[in-house]
Design goal:
The protein is of the alpha+beta class. It has 19 helices and 13 strands. 43% of the residues lie in helices and 14% in strands.
Length: 443
């Protein structure tokens, strides 16, 4: 779905920085200057003429509603700044951005995920925000250091986390209570998780499988690698050898043999990641893998109560991970103003209260603390609780994935599907993947 809204231009209010960043719906002001940032009060870019910024993101109708409400808040404080907004679902989003990039008409402010951040930075499509970070016009001092680092490419800040998320197991609490089985828990090993899934299948007499098969899920594979001291990438190369991938595929071959996972045909229905096709939603499995911030959306798709735990393995394998970023077009005519809008979206308490957890936890720890007290939705509270539980247990952030990452993701999924469906053995599928993935990264 795509929507375009008319500019939100109004007149008569003071565009000063204090009004822009200090109105917090009665939130207590911290000694450092409130939830809006730290340090001295800096003047926002003053507009003498009306300015319209274009904004483009992907997501559903709820995300659009909340994002537009926050942009209206910015206009309330900066009446000469309006927004022309466009949004759509994830499918085709990057194709549309690529077309815009060829024509040099990328919107001023765009939403990216980590699969594309490096490519857009090295192709000089997005703006280097480092100068605004250096003097705190774009104030990242209340963000976790790892989350800041995960928006840097070649030492430059090219994206600011719109929110923080975690790779998670989403499971059917209602089913597990009926089967009188324990819920999966954060910190369980991969072997323990597979054994648990086998118990679920047996207790359900084969009517439901224990878990989605994540052998083609790059998130699961990456965390499994980090749990054993490897990485998905090291610079512009794969960070693991063929033996590691063979071991990963063998783990899930044994899980299939033990009926811990469903048929290959069912798994392939969910491989695209579309929420409505998640097997925990369709009732084919007791658990699926997703991002923690997707829990409310998944819960809306089913009548059963869903629970949340971190992916198996040591919590330190995860890191302060951006669910997505805000980035500025390098060719924008209003770079300072776009940086200020990013600052508002990611560091303002009132904005954070409106956005809630739709994209994930607020990137700012100060805003996050302020917002959490007002969360009433039980699924959002579960997502927030997982973030709190992981906060002090996360490992160091790697670099954002290199150019070629989308192709590597697709190749991993293809290799896993070939193994699951019997089209190739683990060694043959691994050899083909390694050759093609290295070529994709070198290109």
């Amino acid at each position: 779905m795509s929507a375009v809204r008319s500019p939100l231009l109004r007149a008569g209010a003071d565009p000063g920085r204090r009004r822009l960043l200090a109105a917090l719906l009665g939130a207590p002001v911290l000694a450092t200057g409130g939830l809006t940032g730290c340090g001295e009060d800096r003047a926002a870019p003053v507009q003498t003429e009306p300015v319209e910024l274009s904004v483009f993101w992907y997501g559903g109708a709820k995300r659009a509603e909340l994002t537009e409400r926050v942009l209206r808040l910015y206009t309330d404080r900066n009446p000469r700044v309006g927004f022309r907004v466009t949004w759509q679902g994830p499918d085709g989003y990057y194709d549309r951005l690529a077309t815009q990039a060829v024509g040099g008409n990328v919107p001023d402010l765009i939403q990216l995920d980590d699969s594309m951040l490096t490519e857009y930075a090295r192709r000089e499509i997005v703006l280097d925000l480092s100068e605004y970070v250096a003097d705190h016009r774009l104030d990242l001092r209340t963000l976790p250091a790892g989350l800041v680092r995960y928006g840097q490419v070649d030492g430059r800040t090219v994206g600011v986390a719109a929110a923080q998320t975690a790779a998670a197991v989403v499971y059917d609490r209602t089913l597990l209570r009926r089967l009188r089985l324990p819920e999966p828990s954060t910190g369980m090993s991969w072997a323990e998780y597979v054994a648990w899934a086998g118990r679920v299948t047996r207790a359900g007499e084969g009517r439901v499988a224990g878990t989605m098969d994540p052998s083609g899920d790059y998130r699961a594979f990456w965390l499994w690698l980090r749990g054993r001291g490897d990485e998905l990438y090291r610079d512009r190369q794969l960070g693991f050898g063929a033996d590691a991938l063979i071991e990963w595929f063998e783990l899930w071959r044994r899980a299939r043999s033990g009926r811990a996972t469903p048929s290959a045909a069912l798994v392939e229905q969910a491989d695209g990641g579309e929420p409505a096709r998640q097997l925990v939603v369709t009732g084919a499995t007791a658990a699926s893998f997703a991002w923690s911030h997707q829990l409310p959306e998944l819960q809306r798709l089913t009548d059963t109560e869903l629970g949340l735990a971190a992916l198996p393995g040591p919590p330190g394998a995860q890191w302060h991970r951006a669910s997505m970023y805000w980035a500025a077009f390098r060719g924008t005519r209003q770079p300072a103003l776009v940086a200020d809008v990013i600052n508002f979206l990611t560091g303002n308490g009132e904005a954070g209260a409106v956005l809630g957890h739709e994209r994930g936890l607020s990137p700012s720890l100060a805003v996050r603390s302020y917002v959490e007290a007002g969360i009433t939705d039980p699924t959002q509270r579960r997502a927030a609780a997982l973030g709190t539980a992981l906060a002090n247990r996360l490992g160091p952030a790697p670099n954002p994935p290199p150019q070629g990452h989308p192709r590597v993701r697709a190749l991993l999924l293809e290799a896993a599907e070939n193994v699951r469906g019997g089209a190739a053995g683990t060694r043959a599928a691994t050899a083909r993947f390694m050759a093609q993935a290295n070529a994709a990264l070198a290109g």
